[in-house]
Design brief:
rod-shaped; 326 residues; alpha/beta
């Protein structure tokens, strides 16, 4: 059965106006065109819809019976084809999934949740851990995520969402959109009283001579720190790896190990765990943080709202503003 939704609009206008001329004016078409639409409606429904009674048109019993249903159906169709862009946060009930690096969840998750709860108490957030392999959640339209600013990993692979953590490259899949929201420089993290804290300058040679812990979900012993040291004819010794920065900090706080971590993450460790931060004596670019999402959510008002809040929370976390505002 071939359905023409224009006939639904015509039928609604005819039943509301009770005349061909009135319906034509309402839909901004000519009277002959509306007459033709009425003829098609009659053939489709097998009912006269409107019959002449003297100088006026009277709806048939069938037309009276379906009048409200036709109007409701037309409103539903308009809602599907021309959805409202208005967002009522007070009544919004929705669950969002965010695949974020655990360090960023700790840094900016509480601020994001507080903002969400204040504006839309019916919204729930699901923070889930990043995978150690490339997975297609964002390609299937899953929740947005912010790749971390990790200790520099080996380059290669990646693209898509989420990437093999740690990873901070911009997603390259065409259906994945991304917004660079922040960046973080790397610093050297040691316990207070560590031998490196007692020297005037932490040189590359002194940095390389220390024993290191590397952060890698896959247990990799090497990364671009080693490449940077090799260009200076230096090597370091990694004695252990940890899957997260928080785990690595626990190793460091009770030993002479050193770990290289994003300043935004290390800043909280320094305050909470009594650690010392030292400048990294290597020339490395800052690690960017991207907020990524599937293109199907580009114009979703609720998703746009959450992205704005997430962007604010991440930017504040990376700049340290969230800590002074608490």
């Amino acid at each position: 059965m071939q359905l023409d939704l224009n006939l639904l609009a015509a039928l609604d206008a005819l039943l509301e106006e009770g005349s061909v001329a009135g319906a034509a004016d309402r839909l901004h078409v000519t009277a002959p065109a509306m007459s033709r639409s009425l003829g098609r409606i009659r053939r489709t429904t097998g009912d006269q819809i409107l019959v002449r009674t003297g100088r006026t048109m009277t709806p048939t019993p069938y037309a009276i019976a379906v009048r409200e249903q036709v109007h409701d159906l037309l409103q539903q169709v308009r809602g599907v084809l021309a959805p409202s862009r208005e967002l009522d946060l007070a009544t919004l009930e929705r669950t969002f999934t965010l695949r974020w690096h655990d360090a960023l969840v700790a840094l900016s998750g509480p601020a994001l949740l507080a903002a969400v709860r204040e504006q839309a108490p019916g919204v729930r957030l699901r923070f889930i851990a990043e995978s150690s392999i490339d997975t297609p959640e964002l390609r299937r339209g899953g929740g947005g995520r912010a790749p971390p600013p990790p200790p520099p990993p080996p380059r290669g692979g990646g693209g898509g969402a989420p990437p093999p953590p740690p990873h901070a490259d911009r997603p390259t899949a065409p259906e994945i959109h991304a917004d660079r929201v922040a960046e973080s420089h790397q610093v050297v993290v040691v316990r207070r009283g560590h031998p490196l804290t007692r020297v005037k300058t932490v040189t590359a040679a002194r940095y390389a001579a220390a024993e290191h812990i590397s952060v890698s979900r896959r247990g990799r012993l090497g990364n671009i720190l080693d490449d940077a040291l090799a260009r200076l004819d230096l090597t370091r010794r990694v004695v252990v790896t940890a899957p997260t920065e928080s785990a690595a900090f626990e190793f460091v706080r009770g030993s002479d190990l050193v770990v290289t971590a994003p300043e935004s993450t290390a800043r909280s460790a320094a305050a909470d765990l009594g650690m010392a931060l030292l400048p990294l004596p290597l020339d490395l670019p800052p690690a960017p943080v991207y907020l990524s999402w599937h293109q199907r959510y580009d114009t979703d008002p609720a998703h746009i709202w959450l992205r704005d809040l997430a962007r604010t929370a991440l930017t504040g976390a990376m700049s340290g503003e969230w800590r002074t505002a608490r």
